[in-house]
Every structure is written in structure tokens, then in C-alpha cells.
Amino acid sequence: MTLHADVTLDLGDLHLDVDLCAPGEAVTAVLGPNGAGKTTLLRCITGSLAIDAGSISFDDAVFDEPPAVFLPQERRNLGVVHQDYLLFPHMSVLDNVAFGPRSRHRPAREARRIAAGWLERIGMETYAAARPKSLSGGQAQRVALARALAIDPAALLLDEPLAALDAGSRLEVRRDLRRYLNDYGGATILVTHDPVDALALADHVAILEHGSLTQVGTIAEVTARPRSRYVADLIGTNLIHGTAHQTTLTTTNGTTLTTSEAHDGPVFATISPADVVVHRMQPEGSARNRWQASMADIDVLGDRVRAHLVGPMDLIAEITPAAAAELELREGDTIWASVKATEITVYPE
Asked: Which of 62, 121, 264, 283 is a good FRET partner for 165, with 20 to 30 A between their CA atoms?
């Protein structure tokens, strides 16, 4: 069971060009910054937007393939949880969940029986007669999920399902959501801009930037070898792009680095901020990569200090508060930075 979305769409300033496969019994997170096209992609899959070219299908069932095929939303058998949940305020919790089966032409008594079963599964049976306005954010999220699953959908689509929650309830609801998704056998697409949600809930991740997928793989694959500044910033590492000739890497601005591994051709390289050493004077020792830089910004984050170094390469260095105090670091200072060749991870573009 696979949901396949091969989507080309122009909408305002956005050019969406995506080829995404979401396998069954797995959660695929579409992760990207605001304005990348995540929700637009979801709207194409649900049928609220028609695509310009390509196709959207679930196994052999084609939902959208212009110009010949376009199934309306109610015929796509997709469960959707919207960012704001969109519960019907005039209906009880039970009737909200029963709405899905009723919209699939189930008899009223059967629809309410299905809804009651789902409320029991999510621990909300005592709220069956309540109205949505009396629910907390976490409770409303559970009801919205039950409504989406009550139709026995072929695939489940979640649009920023935790974004409306406060920090106090997000952890608990995220844990519960993971449990519900583990029990669901269909394909799930989770749209989010929060990497924590992706890490906690997803089996696979697709990075969407400026309307295109820049990286697809398991969480481990994507975080181990980031291929864009966005992903590198998410996981807190430094990303360098350049050309390698054996153990010499030349960056796009002409700076050279010595690495411990031999490569040839276009490459990416990562340097952990903890491996960037800051010095007041030109350093001596085994580090073969050293250069002068300026301290652009200094941020204290818990027990670490992160410094933005501007020079031949823009890098983030991470040091202890004690080291920062000893070096008497100030924004605008000229310092030296060094990185050992063994601390640079290089991989093909």
C-alpha cells in the first residue's frame, strides 16, 4: 500500500514540483520551512487543489491525473487532521466523530456505534456529550484524529497536528499520537516544520524547500548526511559545499581544507560546532586547518556557548561558558579558529 504524489503545480509565487512516495504501515514526514509548499502539497493530495501535471494515486486507484482524472475529496478515502482540527462547534464530540462514517453513508446508529468505539480507544468516552469548545487542545486533537480514523481511511494526512498545542501538553499528545499511528496500518503523511515531531513520529522524512524535495530518506540517513543549509541548521551542524581532490577540499569561495578521507569531485562536508576550536592567538599543534575569523554573534544556550564565526568560512563554534570567559570573547573580536582533519566528515554530493 503506497500513496504516490507526483505533483506539479504553480500557485502564486510557488512552483511545486514534488515526487513523493509514502509506504503503508509507516509515517512519512514532510518537513520544511514556512512557505516551502507543505500544506499546498497536502491540499493537492486531499483534492482541495487540482494539480497542473503529474498524478496522485493510492496503489492502483488514481485520484488526480490531468486532464482525464480528478476525484473529489469525498471519493479519495483519506483521513485528514487539520492544523486547527476544524471540529464542528455545534455538534457533540460523539457526533463529530460519527460525521465521518455518516458522510460515507453509514446508518446513523452504526456511525454513532463506530464513533463510540473510537472515543473509547482514545480515552475520550466520558466526553461524548461535550461540545468542542469545552475541550483542551490535546483533547480536541484526539477527537480530530478519531474522526479521521473512523472512516477506515486508506491513508492518513496530518497537517501540523501539534502546532496548536502549548508546550506543556505537546509531549504527552505526541507520545499518544505515536501509539495511535503504530496501530494504524495505512500510509501516513505528517506535514510539519518541527524537527522534534518528525524525529518522534516519523519513519521516513522528505525535506521540502522552495517547492522541491531536497532530501528523502530515513531520519538517520538525512541527519547523517545533510544536503542543504536548512537540514544542517535543524540538526545543529556546519555544512560546507565544495570540490574534493583526494584529501583537499576546496569550498565554493576558494577556501581549502585538509580532510582525513580521500574523495574526488563535488562533495558536502560537515563539521560539528563542538569540533571548531576558538583561539585568541594563532594556534600551534596538530590541527592543519586554521584561519582568522570575526565573532559575529554569541549566544548562551544552557551549559554551552554558540559563537557565529565569519571569515573564510561561516561556521558555528560551540564552547563551554568557562572557555568563553577565559578567552574573554566579545562580539566583533578577531580570533583564530581551527579544525582537525579527522573531525571533518566528507560525502559525495
From this structure: 121
Distance CA 107, CA 101 (A): 8
DSSP letters spanning 243-297: EEEEEEEEETTS-EEEEEEEEEEEEEEEE-GGG-EEESS---SS--EEEEEEEEE
Of 278, 185, 183, 266, which is closest to residue 227 (Cα–Cα)? 266
Q: Which CATH superfamily hosts domain 2-229?
A: P-loop containing nucleotide triphosphate hydrolases (3.40.50.300)
Distance of CA 147 to the CA centre of its chain: 24
Measured in degrees and rounded to the nearest 5, phi and psi for residue 206 equal -120, 120
Instruction: Give the start-to-end residue ranges of the domains of the chain.
Output: 2-229, 236-348
Under the banding of pLDDT at 50, 70 and 90, the label for residue 167 is confident
Alpha carbon of residue 120 to chain centroid: 31
CATH of domain 236-348: 2.40.50.100
